[in-house]
Write a sequence for this structure.
């Protein structure tokens, strides 16, 4: 007589089989979800290229939109006054994002060029926060309302022009590409793995926030609804060291130290496969120096140019720069147009009022002092 298997053993095998079928079913469901997300990703980022914007065919005089992202006022307004005085008003527009409620009129600026140029929907901006890039997007949206604006330059309240208006206008209009400092970021651990489902590591970029965009790229940045929410949620500045927190600092310093404005535009354009339409460099010069705090942590800070350091020799050195080296990519970016070398930088920061005054007295906006013939740019 055969012995029957105990019912408990049979029940165990049935349960294991049910668990196995459930695991297969869940795996299939996850696979379907993954495929849907991949399809969504490609549908989302099949973004228009330069030739796809139907309303970008503008008949008329193209303008450069100068977009100032400032903390409050414009302390170097006297320098920009001279810059705009000899410019054709049909060639430029001015937009200012300042503290909410701050107005630019005869009581707050010495230059009439800035009267009523401020955004009325400005927001409170914090350094190292997503509010910084939201302010940039507000500037772009305002500037995009004018179809004549074909180039969009982001500037700070400490920026100065290195050349006269005609030179800068022709330089920017002479290129069909945006100028965006962009390179691979492999060292600092700013990338948050939680971004992976939307932003893969291979598309993560870093660079200067001071950009100069063509109109189609400006639209992508201004109206992005996919990448910006990810940055707002997952790209946040690491809390600064606080001696009073003692050992808790160790835990805090393990957080991803993501500075949104140094990654957003670069990563967004890389996600849209637009790097082939960029000059991957900025036209705004910044000199960086590494310093240590009392907690012995080292960080990089921009050099401030005062009256002494804004000397003719230093300004000439900046204007003579014709290439930039990117260590993480072993890439040298030569600054050229139509195979002709040109100076890399049109603007520089950070300048004090004294430094800007010295720059003004050096005849920096004299067209005869230019180092290159801008008319060679086509």
């Amino acid at each position: 007589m055969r012995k029957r298997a105990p019912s408990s053993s049979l029940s165990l095998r049935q349960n294991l089989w049910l668990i196995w079928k459930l695991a297969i079913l869940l795996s299939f469901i996850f696979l379907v979800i993954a495929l849907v997300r991949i399809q969504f990703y490609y549908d989302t980022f099949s973004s228009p290229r330069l030739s796809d914007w139907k309303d970008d065919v503008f008949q008329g005089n193209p303008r450069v939109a100068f977009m100032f992202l400032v903390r409050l006022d414009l302390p170097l307004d006297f320098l920009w006054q001279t810059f705009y005085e000899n410019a054709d008003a049909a060639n430029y527009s001015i937009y200012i994002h300042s503290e909410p409620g701050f107005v630019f009129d005869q009581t707050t600026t010495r230059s009439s060029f800035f009267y009523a140029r401020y955004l009325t929907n400005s927001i409170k901006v914090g350094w190292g926060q997503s509010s910084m890039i939201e302010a940039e997007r507000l500037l772009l949206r305002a500037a995009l309302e004018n179809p004549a604006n074909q180039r969009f330059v982001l500037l700070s309240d400490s920026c100065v022009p290195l050349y006269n208006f005609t030179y800068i206008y022709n330089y920017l209009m002479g290129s069909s590409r945006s100028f965006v400092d962009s390179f691979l970021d492999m060292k600092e651990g700013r990338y948050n793995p939680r971004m992976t489902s939307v932003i893969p590591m291979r598309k993560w970029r870093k660079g200067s926030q001071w950009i100069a965009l063509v109109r189609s790229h400006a639209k992508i940045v201004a109206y992005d609804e996919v990448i910006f929410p990810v940055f707002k949620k997952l790209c946040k500045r690491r809390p600064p060291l606080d001696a009073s927190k003692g050992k808790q600092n160790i835990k805090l310093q393990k957080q991803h130290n993501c500075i949104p404005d140094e990654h957003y535009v670069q990563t967004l354009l890389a996600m849209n496969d637009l790097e082939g339409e960029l000059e991957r460099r900025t036209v705004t010069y910044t000199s960086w120096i590494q310093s240590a705090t009392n907690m012995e942590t080292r960080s990089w800070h921009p050099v401030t140019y005062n009256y002494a350091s804004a000397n003719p020799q230093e300004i000439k050195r900046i204007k003579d720069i014709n290439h930039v080296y990117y260590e993480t990519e072993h890439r040298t970016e030569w600054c050229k147009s139509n195979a002709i070398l040109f100076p890399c930088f049109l603007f520089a920061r950070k300048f004090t009022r004294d430094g800007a005054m010295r720059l003004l007295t050096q005849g920096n906006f004299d067209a005869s002092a230019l180092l290159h013939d801008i008319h060679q740019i086509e």
Q: What stands out?
A: Residues 61-376 form one domain.
